[in-house]
């Protein structure tokens, strides 16, 4: 009887740990992706608050149509104009601001972002509403 009580006590202690361990991977793709944006990169994220799919850029990009982004797991998504939050992790000595455009080939400026700046929801910071899921190209200036 004592061994049955010990087994029940051990199960009661271990079960919550197992359940927490199972719950974490499902949400792992939705953490704040800013730490994934290395120094000198311009990063775009697919969801607000720097979550979801992330794409990292070291230089200009004239067309996002064929770019991929990463969600923290093994899955690659096509960026395909799905920018909702951004982070300019530039540094002194590198090109400064990043300008983002609504269309490929740098047509129709929708926001400009200084080094070290991040926007959790680009709709709140752009000059030409709507801006979420609208960026198609960017350049460093």
Please give the radius of gyration in angstroms.
21 Å
Average of the residue pLDDT scores: 77
N to C succession of SSEs: HEEEEEEEEE
How many DSSP-defined strands?
9
Strand content: 25-35%
The shape, in one word, is globular
In percent, how helical is the residue content? 10-25%
Number of helices: 1
**Major beta sheet, specifics?**
4 strands, antiparallel
Distance between the termini: 75 Å
Spatial ordering of strands, largest sheet: 2-1-5-8
Unreliable spans are 6-29
Helix vs. strand class: alpha+beta
Fold and architecture overview:
The protein is α+β, with helices and mostly antiparallel strands. 18% of the residues lie in helices and 30% in strands. The protein is built from one helix and nine strands. The protein has a four-stranded antiparallel β-sheet with strand order 2-1-5-8, with no helix packed on it. Strands 7-6-9 form a three-stranded antiparallel β-sheet, with no helix packed on it. Strand 1 and strand 2 form a beta hairpin.
What key attributes describe this structure?
single chain; 141 residues; alpha+beta; four-stranded antiparallel sheet
List the helices and strands and how they pair.
Layout: H1 2-27, E1 42-47, E2 51-57, E3 68-70, E4 76-78, E5 85-88, E6 98-103, E7 107-113, E8 118-119, E9 137-140
Antiparallel strand pairs: 1-2, 1-5, 3-4, 5-8, 6-7, 6-9
Structure summary:
The chain is α+β, with helices and mostly antiparallel strands and 141 residues long. It is 18% helix and 30% strand.
């Amino acid at each position: 009887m004592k061994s049955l009580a010990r087994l029940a006590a051990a199960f009661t202690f271990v079960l919550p740990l197992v359940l927490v361990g199972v719950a974490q991977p499902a949400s792992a793709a939705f953490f704040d992706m800013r730490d994934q944006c290395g120094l000198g990169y311009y990063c775009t994220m697919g969801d607000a608050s720097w979550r979801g799919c992330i794409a990292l850029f070291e230089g200009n990009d004239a067309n996002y149509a064929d770019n991929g982004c990463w969600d923290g797991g093994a899955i690659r998504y096509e960026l395909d104009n799905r920018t909702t939050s951004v982070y300019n992790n530039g540094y002194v000595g590198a090109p400064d601001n990043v300008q983002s455009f609504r269309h490929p080939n740098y047509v129709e400026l929708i926001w400009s972002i200084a080094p070290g700046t991040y926007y959790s929801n680009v709709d709140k910071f752009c000059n030409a509403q709507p801006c979420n899921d609208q960026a198609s190209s960017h350049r460093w200036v």
